Amino acid sequence: MHIDTHPGAAIPGQDEGHQTPTPRPLDGVLVVALEQAVAAPYCSSRLADAGARVIKIERREGDFARGYDRAVHGESSYWVWINRGKESIMLDVKDAGDLALLDRMLAQADVFIQNLAPGATDRLGIGSAALRQRHPRLITCDISGYGDEGRLTGMKAYDLLVQAESGLVSVSGAPGEWGRIGVSLCDINAGLSALVGIQQALMQRERTGLGSAVKVSLFGAAAELMAVPYLQARYGGKAPERVGLKHPTIAPYGAFTCADGRDIVISIQNEREWTAFCRLVLRRPELLQDPRCANNAARVAHRDFVDGVAAEVFASQPSAAMVDRLTEAQTAFGNVNSVHDLVDHPQLRTRRMAVGGHDVEVPASPWGVEWESAEFAQAPSLDAQGAALRAEFSEAAEPSASGPSAHAPMGR
Question: Residue 288's pLDDT is what?
């Protein structure tokens, strides 16, 4: 399903004709991103979606996420997902000339994002504090593995490592062998956290005229996701167990297999829902008088009994019949779908994107806004804008009219 272009919207890269482009909130904002992998590119790509001009600095071999796979017409699925709408320039930041070029870019930038190893930008003379001292309106965003305090600051951090270190894997999946959460959750949440921080810093600059330091760590983003298990363990004395497709503190809430082998996940959130579930789905109204089912705490304490009754009823009926019962009772439910089921899901919103000479469908942003267009901008080939950017930010060049303007909304 495509998102239709709303009246007046212009699709980037197409002839606008007589259309008036819809203003985007970050038009006029220049972002320089010394980035690689997932967290920082996720953040900067979403800034680009909102109108920011994003210049991506890549090493000679390119962002290593370019090589994670070749699934999308020869391009990496990761690359396509989080590098749309950017300009790419290849720089060797250890080369004095290239570092000077980067510094000239930063002199005009509104936002600088980096996720190099801890201390790397300080050694290059482009650490956040030094940059903001030279350019007081600059917003800096440092994305690290473990932050800049504590004894683990120097540890390398990738998504799965942080899933393990933060305890996420200890509350995920079924009992038995440890399992990875199936997407790069720590990277994504760190990128989202950086996005929120940068947007708040831009709003703060509108009030104060000054830039800010935004600092995000993968571990901190993962720990925030773990707030409920942390609070339960620290103050309740008991951490949640791994219960597979069940909920550790609510019952019944989980997957049940129907007579035709289809798994359906159901959720009971309150006593009103439990009453309707007993009467219309289980057709066991006597459970309403059973002390083992008196409230959620009792049902969790007697989960084997409660889930056992539900499993018996689901196993006796085909999935279509159970869906009818669940719908009548207004019980929340969902199917256990495969990725291929997602591809054809009626609620999936996608947007077109050009990749390798083909049009592909990419999941749309979860936030729908009036300035989005019908297509995502392309992800750049390595150093695609290198020559143009070197000319634009050369020592002899005046500040570019295409760069951020002091009179542009949110710009410098």
Answer: 97
